[in-house]
Write a structure and sequence with these properties.
This protein is an alpha/beta fold. It is built from 10 helices and 10 strands. The strands form 2 sheets. A 6-stranded mixed beta sheet has the order 6-7-8-3-9-10. A 4-stranded antiparallel beta sheet has the order 2-1-4-5, covered by helices on one side. Helix 6 runs parallel beside helix 7. The longest helix has 21 residues. The radius of gyration is 19 Å and the shape is globular. One of its GO terms (molecular function) is ATP hydrolysis activity.
Length: 260
């Protein structure tokens, strides 16, 4: 579905991504791990159009999407979340979801004068869809709360919900578990698995928590120093000598846990 070919991203003399090549298969939940500074988030940003690559190519379903801006990729079904949730604090959780789909009639000044019925009909449909998403994610009870008032884990669920308001094909999740308690983390994991199995979402996940990665992801891709080191199951990744070498500073040889 996504093919990354020899992608480089340089910031002056620093090579944040240094010749990364990988493939994300349609229908997979792929984990992306690696030491701090491995280039994982920068690679996400390049694929999602937040940053242009210095060189290399990214294709989606055979189409060259290299350097396309995020709003164009959004309309192609490629969405990305961030380590820190980007909610609209003063709006309710339901309103945060309702504003996601583009091209709404209420965005045009002409329609506010002459298309009020159409706007009202759209808003009713969006409200119903938002309520369905909130129920799916088991957070209906926060629908009318301001998004700035909810917990960090609930904000992560809300971000996941925003991807459900449009026809997402592939979603890049950047540290979805950061700052989330274990109960909500398992709720997020269950929602991702259900979206993958029942709605055909493809996911790519950067995550510190290896229990979370093991629960969800196959394959797992490991990066270090901007390069792809290895790909396979998490067990295969943990047994890979190059990966062990890359993680020596985090004590991988003495722990059954890999930090991303």
């Amino acid at each position: 579905m996504i093919v990354v070919e020899d992608v480089h991203k340089h910031f002056g003399g620093f090579h944040a991504v240094d010749g990364a090549t990988l493939t994300i298969e349609k229908g997979s939940i792929t984990g992306l791990i690696g030491p701090n500074g491995a280039g994982k988030t920068t690679l996400f940003n390049v694929i999602a159009g937040v940053l242009p690559p210095t060189s290399g190519r990214v294709t989606m379903d055979g189409e060259d999407i290299t350097g396309l801006p995020p709003h164009e990729l959004f309309h192609k079904g490629l969405l990305r979340t961030f380590q820190i949730a980007h909610e609209f604090h003063s709006m309710t959780c339901r309103e945060n979801l309702m504003m996601v789909p583009g091209g709404q009639s209420g965005e045009a000044l002409w329609n506010t004068w002459f298309g009020r019925k159409r706007i009202a009909d759209e808003e009713r449909a969006l409200r119903a869809k938002a309520d369905e998403v909130l129920e799916f994610l088991t957070i209906s009870h926060i629908a009318d709360l301001k998004a700035g008032e909810i917990s960090g884990g609930q904000k992560k669920l809300l971000e996941l919900g925003r991807t459900m308001m449009v026809d997402a094909k592939i979603v890049f999740l950047d540290e979805v578990g950061a700052g989330v308690n274990r109960t909500l983390l398992y709720t997020i994991a269950d929602a991702i698995k259900q979206l993958n199995e029942e709605r055909g979402y493809t996911f790519v996940v950067i995550e510190h928590d290896m229990d979370f990665i093991e629960r969800l992801c196959n394959p797992v891709i490991c990066m270090a120093e901007g390069k792809v080191l290895a790909e396979g199951t998490l067990a295969e990744i943990k047994a890979n000598e190059q990966v062990i070498e890359a993680y020596l500073g985090t004590g991988l040889k003495n722990k059954d846990k890999v930090g991303a």
